[in-house]
Amino acid sequence: MNRYRPADKNEELLYEITIDSKSGIALYLVSDASGVESPPHIHHTWAIIAGISGIELNRLYTATEHENRKVSEVKTVPVGPGEVITLAEDDIHSTAVVGSQSTYHLHLYGCDLKSLPAFNTRTFSAE
Ligand SMILES: [Fe+2]
User: What pTM, to 2 d.p., does this model score?
Assistant: First the structure.
């Protein structure tokens, strides 16, 4: 894994592995440091996240106030080595790296992440 060094303290590393030129389907290797968290967000495309090392805790939400972008947690899914979570294009999730180890997780998306709207337009507040 020398080519893809693991995240140091507070880092979130996104390595682009490949993007299919016809379909746009994109594969990334993600390494996030212990304690790194993302706010609730939507991708607007499907995603399959597979754990290699470390534990990424995924929280899933339902929208409670669409206008105010508020969500409520409905489920928590730890994704560790050999475990997988699938997300539909309208699913809202957040992530948190738990435990002391930084992660390696493969993220397969239905499109190139660079083609998505800016991240801060896709986030929500958890109640
Ligand atoms: Fe995400």
Answer: 0.92
